[in-house]
Structure formats: C-alpha cells, structure tokens
Design goal:
Elements lengths: L7 E2 L4 E6 L2 E6 L1 H7 L2 E6 L4 E2 L4 E7 L3 E5 L4 E6 L2 H4 L3 H4 L8 E5 L11 H8 L1
Antiparallel strand pairs: 1-2, 2-3, 3-9, 4-6, 5-8, 6-7, 8-9
C-alpha cells in the first residue's frame, strides 16, 4: 500500500497535501482498494465547507461512499478529469486522481491530521 510521507491523512481515508494556504484533497490508496473499481465521482458545488461536512461521493461497483472535508476551507477547484475518467482515482489516487483543491481557513488546522505512520496504524 502506498502512503506518501509528505501527505496528511484522515480517519475517513482522505489525504491532504498542504501548499501554503491551499490544500489538494483526494482519497487514499487504501480507500480506493477497499471500494474497488470507481465508476463515478460526484463533487458538491464549490463553496465553503467545515471539517467533517460531506463534499461529495464516490460510487464504485460495490458501494457508494461519502467524501468528508478534512479541514475548514473553500473549494476553489474540482478535478474535471474525474467526470470522464473516474478510474483515475484507482490508478493514481495521489496524482491525477485528486478530487478538490481548497483555500484553507487556517493552514495550521492541518496539524491535527494524521501522519502517514499514524494513518497506517489506524487502518491496521
């Protein structure tokens, strides 16, 4: 399982890459593996979300799963490539399979997220 050390993680299986006051968010390699073949990704409209709020859903052959905002922020970009090719989440979850970019309300709020090692321990 691939868990890049430069990312932060949530118990709900989202990853977060922080760059100054912005963050890129997607689901982890573990999550996409558990879901199976992803056939549809739906992201809610751009706007402001609080940590823990649902910002979209991922539909796989087996199930539908909510996507949870890891930190407070405003969605400023959505990965339009996922509309035509949702399988990018399976093939490249930390690259081309990213889901949203947000402007963080407070960049230090990412400090509460898990490191790769903590996430690995969390999923067992």
């Amino acid at each position: 399982m691939n868990l890049p050390n430069n990312l932060k993680y949530t118990a709900e299986h989202e990853w977060v890459q922080i760059e100054n006051d912005q963050a890129t968010i997607g689901i982890t390699d573990f999550a996409q593996g558990e879901l199976g073949d992803i056939v549809f990704v739906e992201i809610e409209p751009e706007g402001h979300y609080k940590a823990g709020e649902v910002f979209g859903t991922v539909e796989a052959v087996k199930t539908v799963s909510d996507l949870f905002m890891p930190v407070d922020g405003e969605i400023i970009a959505v990965n339009a490539s996922l509309e035509d090719n949702p399988a990018l989440v399976n093939s490249d979850p930390y690259g081309e399979g990213w889901m949203i970019k947000i402007k963080l309300d407070d960049p230090s709020s990412a400090d509460q997220l898990m490191s790769a090692k903590e996430y690995e321990n969390n999923i067992g």
